[in-house]
């Protein structure tokens, strides 16, 4: 069950006073949002998502007293997530040379005209991160266009365009994979 904006606001106010139960509720209600963000931004690093999600909430707990608008918690936590994702990519670039990056696995094409979850995942991972993020927030997390605009700091028009482009690219990819009939 999803919490109302008023409940989230109350959890934030309580958590800012170091109420652990209230912070646990914030984690419970926002962990899937942060997970979707990492899925979109770091699709090839799923094995690291759990650690990064935990890092987001550790940092959020430390910074929570500085949050001025409790009703902006979702967009604030996504901002922390985006920063951590960017920091993670930068640290990997420093540690890894281009020669040590493994070749991507060969894709297996299916003859069936139905959409397999594997085909869908392959196509979803091919989307640019901004399109992935908007698509996942809309179709997996079921956020409204307005909420996605707030979370991503984009206009509603821009969000609508990104979701539309993501759908078109997914359809084209699935057709190319032979998974769209």
Describe the structure.
There is one protein chain. The protein contains 8 helices and no strands. The protein has helices at about 5-15, 20-40, 45-65, 75-95, 115-125, 130-140, 145-150, 155-175. It is globular, with a radius of gyration of 18 Å.
Short key terms for the protein model shown above:
2 domains, 69% helix, mainly alpha, 0% strand
Helix-strand topology string: HHHHHHHH
Question: How many domains make up the coordinates?
Answer: 2
User: What is the mean predicted local confidence, pLDDT?
Assistant: 82
Coarse structural class: mainly alpha
Distance between the termini: 35 Å
CATH class label of the largest domain: Mainly Alpha
Give me the CATH architecture of the largest domain, please: Orthogonal Bundle
Shape category: globular
Beta-strand percent range: under 5%
- Report the uncertain regions: 96-113
User: What is the CATH T-level topology of the largest domain?
Assistant: Rna Polymerase Sigma Factor, Chain: A
Radius of gyration: 18 Å
Number of helices: 8
Helix percent band:
55-70%
Biggest sheet statistics: none
User: Mind telling me the CATH superfamily name of the largest domain?
Assistant: RNA polymerase sigma factor, region 2, helix turn helix motif
- Number of DSSP E strands: 0
What's the quick description here?
With 181 residues, this protein is mostly helical. Helices cover 69% and strands 0% of the residues.
